[in-house]
Predict the structure of Phosphate/phosphoenolpyruvate translocator.
Amino acid sequence: MQSTAISFSPSISLPKKPHKPSGSASLCRFNPLSQPLRFGSLNGSTARKINPISCSADSSSSKLNRNGWISVPAPVPERESDGMEVRATSVPESAGEAPKSKPMTETMVLGSLFGLWYLFNIYFNIYNKQVLKAFPYPVTVTLAQFAVGSVLVILMWTLNLYKRPKISGAQLVAILPLAAVHTLGNLFTNMSLGKVSVSFTHTIKAMEPFFSVVLSAMFLGEFPTLWVLSSLLPIVGGVGLASMTEASFNWAGFWSAMASNLTNQSRNVLSKKFMVRKEESLDNITLFSIITIMSLFLLAPYAFFTEGVKFTPAYLEAAGLNVNQLYTRSLIAALCFHAYQQVSYMILQRVSPVTHSVGNCVKRVVVIVTSVLFFRTPVSPINGLGTGIALGGVFLYSRVKRIKSKAKTE
């Protein structure tokens, strides 16, 4: 339901003498109002109630009232030269009310999503590392994670928990490169986690901004500012310092993590360069769901040809592994793997990419600290210093990007 607001704007002066009504053309007729009028601005500022007014100058209101006419007093003399006219417009009835608790609710929802994002990421890294230590086949482990994610996506669409998309052939062709680099990025991450500590893998992955700047300059023509380049120096220096003093360092784990950075940032660049037409665009969650299913089909042949079928109970028992324990931890890791990425896209729909980048930096700090405490990873003072410098550089990079994005909008 809406109420009527009265606004004042410069226009023709009010007449000095009221005109006697001589027909409908010179009268403003209002239907009887069940509620008083409100004075207020058109932009929804606080309204002030007044008694019902009339638009006729005839003082004999008893006769006119029967026909729906109401009378108005003669204009006040000092108002005659103001050059103001009265106009009526419709505004929401709640225009003058105080803001509801909606922003607080949205803040609580966003905070809960960030908490789930971090929690799922912590559990994924812990259980995934335990699985890879006992079962050193990263391609098979990655395939199992895509398989569980694909099952969840299909259930989500089947139960109408999320709208099932209508995909065209052109969209699938555009998404295929994104699915390919998404597959490689997660595969390289698991390869690195299987070779080095969780904390060291995430320290190396802190170099993602460096690859983002390089690839954006090469393929998108987006050249960084001096401030952005300056923020990359502590990232590169901190990773180098941490690598020199890392107890679990080996080149296979190092280059796998670096390849993960390259492929993950290539996915971001490709998503800009090969974006589907605007009228056919997909939301982030739907895009991630389709990429998950496509990654399963892309990785399955390679997994069978390189590592074979080694996830059967018979093979695991022959290898002396606890089948139930390995299956349980693999399932939890796969569920958390899909959940944290799904929540990440949900957050990205609510905040800017720069805010998401800051949250990702904090998430990496949380994962490194919890993994060091859980696995009791030996960390030397210099190693810790290098990790801290790298993460500080990532945070500085995020702040510089935020300032840059604000400058563009102003």
Q: What stands out?
A: The chain has two domains: 2-92, 102-409. Residues 2-92 form one domain.
